[in-house]
Amino acid sequence: MDQYFKKIEKCSLCESPRNKILISRPFNDPSVKTFLDDYYNNSIEDKYLEGVNYEIAECLNCGFIWQVYILNDELMGNLYDDWIDKKDSLRGKKEADISLFHDYSQEMIIISKLLRKKPFQTSVLDFGMGWGYWCLMAKAFGYNSFGLEFSKSRVDYARNMGINVIDDISKIEDSKIDFINFNHCLEHIEDFKNILNILSSKLSDGGIIRISVPSRRGLKKEDFNSNWKATKNAIHPLEHINSFSHKNLIKLGEIVGLKKISPPFLLSGLSIREIIKRIIKNFYFNNFGTTIYFRKIV
After folding, report:
1. Which helix H or strand E contains 153, and what residues bound it?
2. Contact (Cβ atoms closer than 8 angstroms) between residue 80 and residue 151
3. What is the pLDDT of residues 221-242, one digit of tens each?
4. Exposed (0-12), middle (13-18) or buried (19+): which is 220, by Cβ within 10 Å?
5. Which of 118, 161, 176, 253 registers the highest number of CB atoms within 10 A of its CB?
């Protein structure tokens, strides 16, 4: 096997060896390489990608989708610490539209309603917190908020904003966290079942974890033809090494002792038309979406 990559031969969710390859293209093929050069500002040296394919497999047992060849641990560190432009990444949060912060505020209200506790009584953890803006919102709402992050630049930035940062999951005591935000991390993690199992152990009795991953809604298998080109979607090359359906997430939750729950409607101040749209949207997400709230089974 190539020195820079490792091969994932079977389904990481159900462990079935039965799968089919949806697409296989050399990483240096223009259909893949052009995207990588543009997205990472030509920061990936050609030597890392030579002789390796961007290959997508689908499990014939459970429908889980994954990248067969993924970067080794050292290069995964390079990807997130060096190849991704930190200035652009930070700018995406600092200069975000108000809708991002509105969504964060809605999440803070949902947490309180689901747990039926006051913010000062509630500990929340943002796993893979990035630059810390979700934690900052939680702190503003009065929660005991913590962030877990491995990137030193992001940790330093968050600490400068007054965020409590944990750099090692083992430092969290079991059964101490009431709510965990696990937002757009699962798709990046090779050993995701083990990580989620550890996070579940950190939840208090009846604690809640919110999992969100990129939707497959725009991912059509018939698009994997001679005209296919890589893009930023659920199977983003190098980064999104796992792709989950709604059913995949439910199954994963069951494996680690979590049960899907429905978040409450937040309808205050909405018009009749907006309420109808919200009900339809919630129906879709509760039955097909890839943002799901889970409660720890006691």
Report:
1. helix 152-160
2. yes
3. 667 887 899 999 999 999 999 9
4. exposed
5. 253
